[in-house]
Specification:
The protein is α/β, with parallel strands linked by helices. The protein has ten helices and nine strands. It is globular and about 55 Å long. Bound molecules: adenosine-5'-triphosphate and magnesium ion. The site of adenosine-5'-triphosphate (ATP) has 19 residues, from helix 2 and helix 9.
Length: about 270
């Protein structure tokens, strides 16, 4: 199986830093937004962090961090910054050569920072690439953001609309499952897979309750933990150009920002990274 090959080739990696991967195979669920907020949340807790951006087309998190640097220069303010690298997909024509190049580039990115940081945060693209598979195979913690809808839920598995019986697992879940099996077979600590609900609407809504029940059914079958993430808030869309996160905003702020900070802190607690 491709996943297994990936892992066995990178077996010597044995990173001393904790590898936190933001991944799924659906665009726009909040991987990069969550990644940036988690990076700043970790740095806020005194941790040294490196970021590896595997989405070399959009480079969302790398650009977010560039915006942060620009903000620091413009405003003359000192903010904490992570180390950043972007790993581009190989363009080699032959698959095996492409995979080897991807692997070597990923390994080099990890080796560059491994001894210097406590956490390596890897932001994956919203589609299935070999680099993304490598990242999944290396994840100590995998965070999969999911928006509050049954369309997004399909990314994990199909659940019957009436009794929430799990009908089948998604291709993505199977891929994560393979990664885990290999991890356990090679004596590594289990990967902690956390499905994070992002862009939450009101908790009382009918849809929310239904998604909750469906996730409970899937959770038992696939063994992930699912935790609430960030609510749908305009502020999360507005912060990107300044490179700031909710944790960088002045403490005396609107009630909504206080609540946003709180939800991010509870997410970090729930991920059990510290
Ligand atoms: N909690 C939230 N509230 C409001 N908007 C959000 C929230 N989380 C993310 N967004 C917005 O949703 C959009 C997609 O987010 P983001 O780019 O983080 O997703 P992604 O999973 O990284 O996407 P891709 O798969 O394309 O890399 C962005 O416009 C972002 O500002
Ligand atoms: Mg992204």
């Amino acid at each position: 199986m491709e996943q297994t090959k990936v892992k066995s080739k990178m077996e010597n990696n044995k990173s001393s830093a904790h590898i936190l991967v933001l991944g799924n195979e659906k665009g726009g669920t909040g991987k990069s937004t969550l990644a940036m907020h988690l990076v700043v949340g970790l740095m806020d807790n005194g941790k040294k962090v490196a970021v590896i951006d595997l989405d070399a087309r959009q480079k969302s998190i790398a650009r977010y961090i560039e915006n942060r640097q620009a903000y620091m220069q413009r405003e003359g303010k000192a903010l904490q910054l992570p180390l950043v690298s972007v790993v581009k997909q190989s363009q080699a024509k032959v698959t095996s050569q492409r995979q080897e190049e991807d692997q070597a580039n990923m390994q080099a990115a990890l080796d560059n920072v491994n001894q210097q940081v406590d956490f390596i945060v890897i932001d994956c693209p919203g589609n299935d690439t070999y680099l993304s598979r490598l990242a999944h195979a290396l994840a100590d913690t995998l965070v999969t953001p999911l928006n509050d809808s049954f369309v997004d839920l399909d990314l994990i598995g199909e659940v019957a609309a009436t009794d929430y019986q799990v009908k089948q697992l998604s291709y993505y879940s199977e891929m994560v499952w393979d990664s885990r099996k290999f991890r356990s077979a090679s004596g590594q600590a289990p990967m902690d897979w956390v499905v994070v609900r992002n862009r939450l609407a009101s908790l009382d809504s009918r849809n929310n309750k239904r998604v909750h029940r469906a996730l409970e059914a899937l959770q038992k079958r696939i063994m992930f933990r699912y935790v609430p993430g960030l609510y749908e808030r305009v502020i999360y869309k507005e912060l990107f150009p300044s490179g700031l996160t909710i944790l960088d905003l002045p403490k005396t702020n609107s009630l909504s920002n206080v609540a946003a900070r709180q939800e991010l802190r509870s997410l970090i607690d729930n991920l059990k990274l510290l």
